[in-house]
Amino acid sequence: MRRELWAGLTWTGVMVLCVALRVTLGATDTSYLVTIAPYMLVSAGTPIAVLVGTLRHRPPHRAGWFLLAAAQAVYAVADGMTVRDDWLGSFLEPTPADLVYFASYLLLSAAVLVFIRRRTPGWDIPSGIDALVVSISAGLLTWIYVLQPLTSDSALPLNAKLTQSAYPVLDLMVLILAVRLVMGTGTRGPVLWLLLSSLTLMFSVDTAYAVEGIADGGAVDEAYLDAMWMISLGLLGTAALHPGIRRFDQRSDTALPDASPARLGVLAVAVLMAPGVQFIQWLRGEPVSVPLISAACAVMFLLVLARMYGLVTAQRRAAVTDSLTGLHTRRHFTQALAVECRRATRAGHGVGLLIIDVDHFKKVNDGYGHPAGDQVLREVARRLAAGSRAGGVIARYGGEEFVVLAPHTGPGELYALAERLREEMAGLPVDIGGDLLSVTVSIGAAVAVGPDPEALLHDADEALYAAKAAGRNRAILSPAG
User: Fold this and answer.
1) CA atoms of 355 and 442, how far apart (whole Å)
2) What is the pTM of this model?
3) Does residue 245 sit in the same domain as residue 335?
4) Count of C-beta atoms within a 10 Å radius of residue 181
5) Does residue 371 sit in the same domain as residue 230?
6) Secondary structure class of 428 (helix, strand, coil)
7) Which of 4, 212, 340, 400 is an active site residue?
8) What is the rounded distance in angstroms from the CA atom of residue 477 to the CA atom of residue 470?
9) Is 286 one of the annotated active-site residues of the chain?
């Protein structure tokens, strides 16, 4: 592992050296081409670093990294065109370099989008809502302090307004995707944080550059802005050279991220940003953007409510769902059984219950290991869900035991269901690492027309023990049913 880190450390060292040279040369009377050379070295080296890291570490899915390398290559070309324009004194907007920069932003956005889709199953709506809340807050700041001053500047021609406004809009698009990337599920590690740091720094420096332009320059030394851009580019190269890119886009098992304290803190800051900006405008005697800020607050409030609803729904689902099999939990089954028994008493119809036990399950665990046992339980659960009729409740009762609650069911119909499920279990072996394992079940069935769920459970349990005593792989209906 240490040897694999040397390339990234070397690139980082080169980047730091170039940053120091750019800042040092910026304070001297050195010619423009010499002063800008360290910046161009990092700019041109970044796509090479990304490409080398991708080819060296060979991540399973390389499309995102190749798009990232292409984006940085196009960005380096645009930087070269900008240096030429600065050297020749050509500033008619939009310049060809602007159009090339725009293309690099689109490629960069495509790369981040590929990472998001690879890392997270489904659309991951909770993370999308979180990212949207942060993006609305960032978009509000961008509009108030960058876009509004640009668009209201009567001295700027229309083409210059459009060109200069495009950069913060594209930056905001990249930031939205970056926030969505980090808030989604997937592996955490140095690669993710390096990418996030790079994209966040790029957004911050681009915004500072735009604000400086609105303020007629002079607020920030250009050498320091270049240094920040160089660090942003360098971090991208370091991320690609890190061996962690092999696991970076591994698909997560779940699409529901936790509501961690850090996530809630970010959302709190984002939501409070809008009223904070309004207060600062009022405090400084500036025109207060009441309609815009009020609309932003209202939208973020609704998004936070939607997020809270999603969290409550997810917690409720987790409380009634067995994490291994995806079936209902014993607690949910117990509640449903009591409800159905009361309904059966009032309506005078039967309620059927099956208790299903996987035969010789301990031998599976002992002979093949617990992961194989888990696979068997998942397969049994899948077949139960596929073979049971609609309207029933299927749950994992405990260990290798399952229950099927079948309302409005008589003894004959319940026994037929039990036999069908038993045959489906025994009819198709389970593939365990290439070994075909025959899995059978014993089933106890009982029907009740009364309010006592404990009596129904007792009858079905007695029938299950009778099925086991009779040799297993069979279904027995309780005489009480």
Assistant:
1) 8
2) 0.70
3) no
4) 21
5) no
6) coil
7) 400
8) 13
9) no
